[in-house]
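Why ABC transporter substrate-binding protein? Reviewers of the renewal asked for a concrete example.
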Amino acid sequence: MKRKSFVWILILTALFSIMAGCAGGGSDKKESQPTAGKNAETKEKTSTEGETEKIKLSFWYGWTGPEAEALEKLIAKWNEANPNIQVKGLSQSDYQKQLTAITGGNPPDIASQFGQNVVPWGAKGAMMPLDDYIAKDGVDLKDFVPSALKTSQYEGKTYAIPIAMHVLMLFYNKDLLAEAGFDGPPKTIVELKNYIQKLSVVQKDGRLERLGLWPGMDTYTFTYAYGGKFYDEASKTVTPDDPGVKAAISLSKGIWDQYGSENLDRFSAGLGKYMSAQNPFFSGKYAMSIDGEWLPTFIKQFAPKLNYGIAPIPYDENHPDLKNPGSVSTSVFYIPKGAKHPDASWAFLKWMTEPEQMAEFTAAIGNLPTRTSAFGNPIYDNVQGFKDFLEYSKSPNLQSFPATTFANEYMTELSQQYDAILRGKVSLDEGLKKVKDQIQPLVK
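Here is what the prediction returned.
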């Protein structure tokens, strides 16, 4: 459920129109004790035989493995304290199935999503607006990091609550850098290119043994490093041809061409799985990696002896005012349109996103919380890398992809053309023109 580099794209293959609505209700309690409110749909139902019938909620989430286990612990904690509302979790990372279930009229009661999908889904009616619940229970939205909360809102409505915030930084293998004569990480983009060249190990026939950094770098992060933007709100124009976007893709293209698609494909085919000891950064196949706040938790699990460091994303030396650049994204919880027990769903969702539960979950999986009141929780003291990422998350040069109804289509097309540009199938200008021609008609 995290954004690993630019693997964040969900293609919406079904368009629909469902009347958006929202039922009221919820508890006025603010404590973290997992007890449902009196006014929520939490009262036990009584059958004709006089027996008590429990409300059963289905909860689809995208986390797997140890991360899913951490979430299930919280679900068990809720269920123990709320015998009248029992939540059944299901690890379901195929988000197209969520959409199919919603449009088919048989959705889960609560689900997780990525923040950049909230506006497209919410605007089309797949997510219930939560504002009536938020107002009735007095949930303090000012406690949320503004850039994180922004991913869940559109045209005055809040469609989801962000549970975790994701930021990318530069990881580097201290031993490999020292062997190459570097006493620290690159600070500027010029230095980054030099590091990549010196840290990469290439055989005479072009075969790669090690890469300084995978050249297909995150377009969004480096677009912001160059001061670029993807959308002009004032003119309602998509801007894939913005100079900053072009500079970011040109950076990757220049590094890609040094090694060639054939050698890079051959090299990548032999790389290990991301969540394993064979992760290319853990195994020394990459000397550096641009990754998220969750990676130190994986390193602790799969490569505890790795001698690594964490540094800011290199900035454009021509614009020192853009130091500490990057992209902010989120993971969210929402109530699908058509959920059978929306009041009970809200009671559970509200509890899950309270500071105590948020801290317990995000600390377990190495993510950043989205509520500022959770930042000082001592549970994070032993979370590797947390302080580095928390400090970096305060940078004014972090941005999120524009929250628009066509964000998914935009990111999908940009990703496809980015790959085509890297592989020389289209020129930079041709590829970005295709993006603009494809997406601009969707703006209206």
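The chain has 16 helices and 16 strands. This is the kind of structural detail the renewal will allow us to pursue systematically.
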